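Q: Hi! Curious about what Iron complex outermembrane recepter protein looks like structurally. Here's the sequence.
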Amino acid sequence: MQKLVFGLVLYLAAISAWAQNSISGKVVDAKSNVPLVGASLWAETAGRGTVTDENGLFELGRLSEGSLRIRVSYLGYETEVITVVVPQSGDLEIKLEPKDILTEEFIVSATRASGSTPTTFSIVDKSEIAKRNLGQDIPILLNFTPSVVSYSDAGAGVGYTGLRIRGTDQTRINATVNGIPLNDAESHGVFWVNMPDFASSVENVQIQRGVGTSTNGAATFGASLNFQTDTRRDDAYAELDNGFGSFNTWRHTVKAGTGLLNDRFAVDARLSKITSDGYVDRAFSDLSSWFVSGGYYGEKNMIKLIAFSGKEQTYQSWYGLPEDKLENDRTHNFYTYDNETDNYQQDHYQLIYTGKVGSNWKTNLALHYTYGRGYYEQYRENDRFSNYALPNVIIGDETITRTDIIRRRWLDNDFFGFVGSVNYVSTDGKLDMILGGGANRYDGAHFGEIIWARIAGNTNIRDRYYDNNAIKDDRNIYAKATYEVSPGLNLFGDLQVRGINYTFDGVNDDQRVVSGQENYTFFNPKFGFSYEKGNQTFYASYAVANREPTRSDFTDNPISEVPRPEKLNNIEAGVRAKAGNFSYNANFYYMDYRDQLILTGQINDVGAYIRENVASSYRAGIELDGAYRLSSAWTLGGNIAFSQNKIKEFTEYIDDYSVAEFQQEAITYTNTDIAFSPNVVGSAIIEFKPTKNLSLNWLSKYVGQQFLDNTANESRALDAFFTNDLRISYSATPRFFKGLEVNLLINNIFNELYEPNGYTFSYFVPGETSGRELVTENFYYPQAGTNFLLGLSLKF
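A: Let's find out. The predicted structure is below.
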């Protein structure tokens, strides 16, 4: 591996050093003279192109002498075609005129924070996503953003993946795509495995930490992820992305677009295929997806139709690794049945309208529909007939109560509705108001099938042993405004009312009849201010969020004892600045939870573990992030978060099998740590660019100790870990290509053995020397050691 990397670096450096004639210059806005970052230049007669850097600068090399036509384009500007003579004396300055065509940023602006919004956020743009995107899922690509801990069930970043932000899991992180809710309406989670290679169709993502601004869909109870999909390109294009890596990982992606036709229409499309054997035994992933968008772009109106779909099959590795196999058998998989797989497909359709009304008003409306369906298959050894509402089988004088069974558990759901907003900006620019909201319905069927039984008895293939349906209506309306009371000082207010109706009826998978209806109305106010002074923006805010229980909280708890909704009071204060080569953000947060729902070990009437409310808990911390450009070759960046995450008091229940009649023992804890909430999370990125075309990045990540439950017990914990990755990127503009890029990513270069996720449970058994003995079983999700991904991208 070392020889491969060293040889590749030398080879790329040698290529980048070779050049013939070249031209260089700068692309700027014709009116403001502001540099245009990412402007596209294409030498038509040479079949070669490039894009401008963060300062609007470009260099186009390996050119033959003579006359050369160059097409220069940038979103929102008129395309320019210039003729230059090579060799060129001096640098060029190319000025582009703004084009009065409605842009797409307003699609997501209603649910996003702006530079003057008093909340904590980060933005990851398309160029940064592209550097990291070699087929791994969204959580892995966001791993180096502040306060993020990501993980993968299969251990290699493909398949089932997840992330936590400030210690909060995905059920508490709101996600939207173009302002449209993405979270599952019942579990509140996001299943990234259903959206393979979605990053290839993302223009940018804004990560708001804390409650943030009002948005659509699930409550923001720790963070929000706001995705904007690809915006249109003025020029026609095609791209091929192919890659391979460790664990037989392959990625194939093709993208194409028409560019702007007749100055009004554009169509873009993507097709992707990703496969991997996974780090864990048998934990393969077979993923495919597509993305299509078509739009009409007028001067005052834009209509866009977007459709995307993902289909996955993964071999289950949900069980995790028992602690006794952690040292010598890290790839062990509990499952051995050859079709122990998860199979799911999800199709998304979005129809979006954006328009200007006069000089002060903008409108946005989106209709959406998502169709999801699929199942996971399980082999169950020696399972009880009673678990499937089946009678015992009598053969002769023998009564058989158990048998081997293969079952499938299905989800078949529809999610549809609309979201919209109206934006008013006063003529003097001091007042910016948004009125928005949406109404959505989820209709989901849950059912289980028996597809095989060793002793079938009175059964038929695909007999349903449970079947229930749920309907959830989610409505919200919000009004937010920013007002400049004096130069640099902005006041912010945001009021949201959210209403929920949830109905469920049928037989649960544990054979209990579950029927109920719950209604909630939440008021979520947010207030704050920001003050801009020079290159710095100071801000502070107070925000409230309320969250309803998840599906399992309703179905697992006795219907008469439904948990209370949760409430979060969030204070954010900080400063963000950018001056020359240095940018930084520093903030403090305090998140005060009321009635937070956690697992305590308490069981229901059929032995299933339930979540219970704890009266008071909190998260408090400091987050720092920044970047400094030392020179044209060296850039340093990083972030670090220090936090305390505490539950003031809760009671743990431990199963006791040491007595004749089963019981649970209660143990009360005070001022204990919240599970999966490390006190320190940090990352650092060092970039070295020896030439314009070659970039070497060293990426480090540190995550402190995490407890597997809320007892702060050292024997139920994940060790702290420190990983280091190396990324080498090379770009060129060979003849007849607009661009060629090679990316090599070597993950975990020092072969750190670490586990960012797991679970635990404890119970009492009869003891040999005493009345009873406590047994604790820990399970882990180990991540891969040193591994690599190599990608080649061709742009036409």
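A: A fun detail: The two ends are 32 Å apart (CA to CA).
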